Amino acid sequence: MENKELKKIATKISNYLATTDNPDSIYHFLRDLLSENEIIEFSRRFEVAILLDQKISYTEIEKQTWMSSTTMARISKFLHNWNWWYQDAIIKIKSQK
Question: Looking at the 3D structure of the chain, how many domains does it have?
């Protein structure tokens, strides 16, 4: 699927998430929208990005998240080469601490 088509499909979800700053509302929305396994997968991928940003080794990340090295490599490409959306999210998470 082309990026433009995917963006169009995800627009309503993105727009809703942009309208709320209530983490509890977002959690419940995601819980209604996604299966438990999808939420876990989604969360693990973001955790991988955070750990890669902290320069944690693939071996240690695999122990913590159970994600494959192939998935970690793909996340690393997005984190470091293709765009800065992971970086933006990580910066925002760090600023909340």
Answer: 2
Whether the full predicted model's pTM is greater than 0.90, yes or no, is no
> What's the pLDDT tens digit per position in 53-84?
999 999 999 999 999 999 999 999 888 876 67
- Which of these, 92, 8, 6, 3, lies nearest to 50 by C-alpha position? 92
Range of the domain at 13: 1-33
**6 and 29 belong to one structural domain:** yes
Task: Note the Cα 13 to chain centre separation in Å.
Answer: 15
Do 49 and 68 lie in one domain? The reply is: yes
For residue 5, CA distances in Å to 1, 2, 12, 82 come to: 7, 5, 13, 19
Tokens of 78: 């997005």
**1-22 average pLDDT score:** 90
Claim to verify: residue 63 and residue 45 sit in the same structural domain:
yes
Question: How many C-beta atoms lie closer than 10 Å to residue 44's C-beta?
Answer: 17
**Closest-CA residue to 44 (of 18, 67, 16):** 67
